[in-house]
Amino acid sequence: MNERLSHEEFVKNAIVSLRKEGFKGIHAVYSGFNEPIKKYFEGENPVGVTNILAQEGKIVIRPVKGGVIPYLPEESPGGSNADEALKIMGLK
Hints:
Arc Repressor Mutant, subunit A, 11% strand
């Protein structure tokens, strides 16, 4: 593989590849995610990378004991938006 992955491609690949069966996200610390991202991107801070991707809506991160769990946006728990909730409630 000669072409380097972008931050988004790397993180999304890691979420899919490192998650355990039956889970949709990965624990950033316990899954082993932090070290490979530091190595691949030559010392970059995984917290900064994931926070930027979350702000851009490319991933969703949920705080948990000992770190965070990144998810793909379409697979995050509680991922329904306000408009959908209002439709279900018959208010929109």
